[in-house]
Design brief:
Blueprint lengths: L10 E6 L5 H16 L4 E6 L3 H17 L1 H13 L1 H26 L3 E4 L2 H12 L6 E5 L16 E4 L2 H10 L5 E3 L13 H8 L6 E6 L8 H9 L5 E6 L4 H8 L8 E4 L5 H7 L2 E4 L4 H8 L4 E4 L5 H11 L3 E4 L2 H11 L6 H11 L3 H12 L1
Parallel strand pairs: 1-2, 1-3, 3-4, 4-5, 5-6, 7-8, 7-10, 8-9, 10-11, 11-12
Helix pairs in contact: 1-15, 2-3, 3-4, 4-5, 7-10, 8-13
Length: about 375
């Protein structure tokens, strides 16, 4: 069926899992762009690996990151460093998810399947080995760091965010077709006039605005990070995205600070506007918000990044010249103070702008051409 460019798949499945919001946000961004580019195609999103498994994955991740993040980091690092155990656990998880996906794929018969969650990608790889995966299959990595569960050589393509990410993926699975692609973020995350965005968001024009986030669940000791940001000077305003962590929002509001110093936001659909309005986007979690900030041309600071994928992704992003990493609160204060100086963030802004020049639509058009 012809799309905008005369090439398009007929039936597309975009698969994810509700473990945090980043994987799902990437899936929705991909599906939205596909529907625009390929109006004649049937594009279906499925954000589940089974109701019970969704709850188990989501709850275990949230509890571990909230109560024992170091334990999560140890598990993450152990699998990165020990390919043998990683392969065993990959096969185990892939078999379980494959059983959930098989009926869906048999019913839909897609000519393109895109996964934004590593467990889903593992299930697809298992089905490919059994000859039960029709069409082309693409795994989209939503984090700069590439965990062993992200890369499956049975799939046709793996999309990564940075050249360093690609190198990690190839080291994990040399037989995989790994590409550096534009981030799967919503079109609303794009460079725009900061003053206009700030006025639309109701933020003061004369403040150095630091947008602070720990992901959808507010991970990463955000209160200590907020303290570190505020110590950087009276001109600093910390705008905190508390996500679904209402206890964090309540504690920050109970401080009684004026909103031009500390503004705690709950769950909001105005994140693109707030990112565009910020002088600096600070994250403890990394993942999607870092990609969204860079796609908007905004500089990124990783503050006391969470163990595991947070620290690994922060290191890779900083190595690419796209972010500053501050392992301690004192370093956060020093970095925010320094970045307020005229021209101090110019290099970060320039490199973020180059990152933002990469367009998801172009990646999808090229993918459609490879389907023919």
């Amino acid at each position: 069926m012809p799309g905008v460019d005369g090439q398009a798949p007929s039936r597309v499945l975009v698969l994810s899992a509700p473990v945090g919001e980043g994987h799902v946000a990437a899936a929705r961004a991909l599906a939205a762009r596909m529907r625009t580019l390929w109006p004649a195609a049937s594009v279906r999103e499925v954000e589940s690996v089974g109701r019970g498994r969704d709850r188990l994955l989501g709850t275990s991740y949230a509890v571990t990151m909230r109560l024992a993040p170091a334990l999560y980091g140890l598990g993450y690092d152990a699998l990165v460093r020990r390919p043998g155990p990683a392969r065993f656990f990959k096969r185990l998880s892939g078999a379980r998810v494959a059983a959930t996906l098989a009926p869906l794929l048999a019913a839909e018969r897609p000519d393109l399947v895109v996964s934004t969650h590593p467990m889903v990608s593992g299930g697809l790889a298992r089905l490919r080995r059994r000859g039960a995966l029709p069409g082309r299959a693409v795994a989209v990595v939503t984090d700069a760091a590439v965990h062993p569960f992200w890369v499956w050589p049975e799939l046709d393509e793996t999309w990564t965010l940075l050249p360093g990410s690609r190198d990690q993926a190839v080291a994990i699975a040399p037989a995989a077709d790994v590409r550096v692609a534009a981030p799967a973020v919503a079109p609303a995350f794009h460079p725009r006039d900061r003053s206009a965005a700030r006025a639309a968001a109701g933020l003061p024009a004369d403040r150095f605005v630091v947008l602070v986030t720990g992901g959808s669940l507010g991970f990463g000791g955000l209160e200590r990070v907020v303290d570190a940001v505020l110590r950087a000077g009276e001109r600093v305003q910390a705008v905190v995205l508390c996500g679904r962590n209402e206890r964090l929002r309540s504690r920050l509001r109970a401080r009684g600070l004026p909103v031009d110093r500390l503004l705690a936001r709950g769950w909001t659909d105005r994140v693109p506007e707030l990112v565009a309005a910020a002088d600096l986007v600070l994250t403890t979690a990394g993942g999607m918000i870092a990609s969204e900030a860079l796609a908007s041309g905004r500089p990124v600071l990783f503050a006391t990044p969470v163990p595991g994928h947070g620290r690994a992704g922060a290191a890779l992003t900083a190595a690419a010249g796209l972010a500053v990493v501050c392992p301690t609160p004192a370093e956060v204060t020093a970095a925010v103070r320094r970045l307020q100086e005229p021209g101090a963030s110019a290099g970060l802004v320039e490199r973020a702008g180059a990152f933002a020049d990469r367009v998801l639509d172009a990646e999808l058009r090229e993918l459609a051409a490879r389907l023919t």
